[in-house]
Design a protein that fits this description.
five-stranded antiparallel sheet, 9 helices, 367 residues, alpha+beta, homotetramer, 22% strand
Chain lengths: 367, 367, 367, 367
């Protein structure tokens, strides 16, 4: 968990600023032998693309990815995979004003505190564009999970006061909503609500839920390397996330043990199952073979067009009105970022988890 | 975030099982020159001691710590500090029954899935006694924070349906409640509630809030090493935690930007301040100089005396009744564990944060 | 020390294959505030460029570097610096033959053993072109060292049987020799020797010595993080290096303590000095303020044009004659790689070393 | 490679000072299911025990190891294994004089430079006793290697001017020499030589060679995680080592490619072999299935009884004569330390190496 590097075996290094030359990621530790092409990654990146609906900024970001290394004749070689997306349509003049003051809810002030100065153009490294590297790496992680029969699906469970639930593990139901809410009626109502907030020059928060199916039992390390601790780190590292919960999450606070414990039973398939899944698929930091369920709370976009009070670099109290292009809600575009961070984390833990038993070592090296 | 090692510079390795020879921690990367003695650590360990009230198990755990290395003439030397607590009063026969089945809500099944077998005595490595190493390391981290004027205080904000708030940063108010609830009236009502649940052979969950004062602005790394991501990882790695939130946390979901943004202003002391602290002291993953506020949701103790259904190692559905000594609520003893993990995380980030500017390097090496 | 990531604070991720789309590096953890431009890096890369003399391959490698992130208005921002060099002149057809057999002295067989297959074009990831990422990162490390008054200089101390020594810390004397041997007479003789070996279709090994001046005392960690252990790792990780030594190195084997100990004395400048430097500037794994001296043994280029015996992928014994363009000696182009790995390692240790004393923490955070 | 923690998966944290309460190690990431008892570790520790011959210090170090965690019913559980050796016979008064001056060839001065002060008793953390933690962890690593058919054997190849070679992989031949020289005649001559140097109040350096048999091909990572780079780091981190070489090592400097390349051929057993082993079992940083061969140069014990010049903490030039008990040669006791660091490194790389191919992941998780 250094600045921009994460993972123990599946180690990713992301880089790039909103208005620099480009953004990208280097993925080290990807196993050899996986089919991978640029389209696999582009498909993921397109899911975070803005401009599809009125709730995201209309600019056309030509986020075209290039695989620079680590893939040969359509397969990963085991060496680092470098993915580069060049910035094409960034116009620096839009952002010149923010060079001199600290936007509320943004990282302008804390970057200055830490580094002494900052690349202020479009938020620099703290821009939402930073997630390009994560999503690109997530596309690779997702390909690895597919080989193991594991799938990750996230959706918008709540935006403002409007809630919905995923009725079945159905990616189409999520994708056809512009807000990634799999209930069409709720999605439509939320669109109206958002339209109202946009007219008020305001923004809205939301909740993303992520479900993982097919996860084998026994993955995750006790103590600090717990699967839920790693997921919490990965998800909380997404800008704008203020809370993470697993399974029953914060609702356990006023539950009793008899309500919250998941009883075990023998499944018809001879596998051990749980009658409920308040645990969210993780017990003692280790996967239990059930679906992994997590949720992330996203704060409302801090860039609002309403007048706000703040301080400039000269230390004067001032009033500001932010201009430019800003999504009134982060959640629909963040759904794929949550999937990406989940996939990246699971792959790293699956790789580390291979080493838990001496019999596994023998299986690999002695055949 | 390997199994039992965490931290980049302040690197701790905890070890020990509930019923093994002992438990402890090695702290590598502690700066030299800090006053430290066994009493400093013992005082922390005593705060996680059970047996003070009827809500914790009556056994006397003689958890006496020894400093085995890294301290000379009362000061840390910069070399690894090894802390050992020998197990003295563990009786293995109490736990022999659980060798053969999987307790609901516990890690018995997942440890078997991961490792093929487990040290079943008292939960082995997944016992609450595992936190001894964390708390011992937390005592050292807390000493370092004190040198920098940083203080960490946690308390029980909610147990079952009963809530309270910390009115001022007052450790005494917390400590004098057996439940670590700083409101005496709420604490008393909660005691009655707990007594009822104990009679029902059940257990209860709760919420711990942790406040950090004096934290300098500019600490934490962008992207994966965000201060909140590191805290989320540290806190979620505590057994029984199912959710972590920072500042306004999950309540941001239905807030608007104008409600949730914290406006900046110039303080009378010439420092930049925020009018509110929905951010919880962290913006863009970097501390903003305000109090850091986080909350952790603890599930009810999974060991309940009510009859439960489960599966044994032979794959048969069975009914069990757990015996032995088990706290009906984890929260009061977990308060110091939350403080410890917070302190450990902050120290590591403070140490890493020293390297952010070339001017700091010059200050250290060129004087 | 994962595959292609190294460093604890100054963390670099290199990527790229000989004949892929490009090569490069992401440098995470570089302090903010350092002047840096593409010319700084290009100058280093040019030093590893072939084609300057008859002892290196004549192909023109247009290794032009682009800074993709992490630099704003001419200064490092503290966020990851991504450097990309696109491959322009690679012709895959030259290498198609080696797809099917294992060249002696090369990594073809071991890559196949590890990964199941390999990108065989030009040696793929095990090509000398892999060092582009190292050298680019080394240019940045070198800029940081300059701020602290530390300088790194390497040269060819021996090629085949011809030896020389660096008379003074004079980069010009090194650079004006095509073989990087600072003694013009020895350099000329060695050129003749090399010409002979080239006619014999053979190649030659050599020895690189590297000197570091201005290194402050007190840097390096005891035990595993010893400065010499980190340097040994960094240098041995350069392809073709078969040995590393510090100071008196292997010559200590038949020395006595009274011969090998460096006596201390008080320098006229009030600093503690050593009368000799058999230690090579490192005692107990920590810098002693004296020059750091290390040497690396490079094996002869394994690609020779003489007929050799080997095995093909079908498991048949065959005879081969390697074609294409290959330097008859690695050393002159490796000199800058040794400097780069030394600089990268020193910077990481300097950054980690900032955290050794509580007084340093106070100096940074309390002013 | 932090101070006292090393390894990516097989992660060890050593601790302890010469005259503190004890020394030890925590081994995290050891696979579950390996038979292990205290005798396995004690046997290794006994090999580094002094006092067996006149060439080592006569003090009786009762280095009795206790397994404090991570082993249950005779098998490793996969959780951290904590090993503790209490210091019993240390007498602090012997060393009080060195508190005030800097012994030539020792780390006294550099520890003071780094930390501001030091635990001067017996050299503190820079004492040879620091290797207790390494050797204890090496005993565990060695058990893991045994499960995979890998064996590590080191011996004294040279002491002063006297050299010998290992004729066969015969541990007995090494162990029966008090100097760990497997040629009885050379061993006897060297004993005489050492006796002379002791009379001259001097000490002697030497060379340790280490051979690994049974290593599978395909282990080690390209670029920074090369197997030889990791070994170089591990071996150079042993106090008193000034050089490390693999296979032909420094002798490659004046070799030609045709002399140094190892031709491949098909073995009668259907495995690919090399006709020679100048590579020392590693090509491109990855094991080639042949014996791994490395050598380490140990400097003469810096503690000599001859009069030496140095500086005291007050900055005065002084003359000193070191007293106490000091081995005139480090090598015989270092042999097991070299084996330990080699085994620790190999195990970590074997564990990381499990993750190289997607087919291995499938083998573990899909059966």
């Amino acid at each position: 968990m250094a600045g921009s590097v994460t993972g123990e075996i599946f180690k990713i290094s992301t880089w790039g600023e909103s208005h620099g030359a480009g953004l990208g990621v280097v993925v080290d530790g990807c196993p050899a032998g996986i089919d991978l092409c640029e389209e696999d990654i582009q498909a993921y990146l397109n899911r975070r693309k803005p401009g599809e609906t009125k709730y995201s900024t209309p600019r056309k970001e030509g986020d075209l990815v290039r695989i620079m290394s680590g893939v040969f004749e359509g397969k990963t070689t085991g060496t680092p995979i470098s993915l580069v997306v060049e910035n094409t349509s960034q116009r620096s003049k839009d952002y010149s004003e923010i060079a001199n003051y600290y936007r509320p809810g943004h990282a302008d002030y804390t970057f200055d505190s830490k580094y002494g100065f900052r690349d202020y153009r479009g938020g620099g490294r703290s821009s939402g564009r930073e997630t390009i590297g994560r999503v690109a790496a997530g596309a690779i992680a997702s390909r690895i999970l597919k080989e193991l029969g594991v799938e990750v699906l996230a959706y918008a469970k709540q935006i403002g006061p409007f809630q919905c639930s995923l009725q079945s593990f159905d990616r189409q139901a999520v994708e056809k909503s512009p807000l990634k809410m799999p209930d069409p009626e709720v999605s439509a109502k939320t669109e109206d609500y958002l339209a109202g907030k946009m007219q008020e020059l305001d923004s809205v928060g939301g909740l993303v839920e992520c479900i993982v199916t097919g996860m084998p039992a026994g993955v995750g390390e006790p103590v600090f390397g717990k699967l839920d601790a790693c997921l919490a780190s990965g998800i909380m590292s997404i800008g704008a996330v203020k809370g993470v919960e697993i399974g029953a999450g914060f609702s356990v606070v006023d539950k009793t043990g008899s309500e919250n414990n998941d009883d075990f039973y023998m499944g018809a398939d001879g596998k051990i199952k749980k009658r409920t899944n308040f645990a969210g698929g993780i017990l003692g930091g280790i996967s239990d073979g059930d679906d992994i369920v997590l949720r992330a709370a996203f704060k409302p976009t801090p860039s609002i067009f309403k007048e706000q009070e703040t301080v400039n670099r000269q230390g004067q109290d001032i009033q500001i009105q932010i201009k430019g292009r800003h999504d009134p809600i982060i959640v629909p575009r963040a759904v794929v970022v949550v999937e990406a961070m989940t996939a990246i984390t699971l792959v790293d833990r699956l790789l580390v988890g291979m080493t838990s038993q001496i019999d596994s070592l023998k299986k690999i090296y002695l055949g």
